Amino acid sequence: MPVRHEQLEVRTKGKGLYEITDDVQENIDRHGVRNGTVTVFVQHTSCSLLIMENADPTARRDLEEFFDQLVPEHTDYFTHG
């Protein structure tokens, strides 16, 4: 099975959830891959990868609100900015 390595740069405008599904799919399609495994590795200390269905846009908004309440912005107990 061939192995492909691609780098995908995602520009952001601060915190939030960013949809990268189309970008990943575009990379897969460009190489004509029909089946296999995709590994997405994020090289950033304060970034996470979240996999969720995207059927209802309010689910994404609810998750962002939850994280805003769980970890408020500009709290004094974080040292990483």
Which helices and strands, and how do they pair?
Blueprint lengths: L20 H10 L26 H14 L11
Describe the fold and architecture:
By secondary structure, the protein is mainly alpha-helical. The protein contains 2 helices and no strands. The radius of gyration is 16 Å and the shape is extended.
Report a brief summary of the structure.
The protein has 81 residues and is mainly α. It is 30% helix and 0% strand.
Distance between the termini: 42 Å
Helix content: 25-40%
Radius of gyration: 16 Å
Reading the helices and strands in chain order gives HH
Quickly count the helices: 2
Could you report the average pLDDT, rounded to the nearest whole number?
A: 86
Could you state the oligomeric state of the chains shown?
Answer: single chain
Number of strands: 0
Structural class: mainly alpha
Taking the sheet with the most strands, its summary is: none
Task: Report strand %.
Answer: under 5%
Poorly predicted residue ranges: none
Shape: extended
What are the main properties of this structure?
extended; mainly alpha; 0% strand; 30% helix; 2 helices; 81 residues
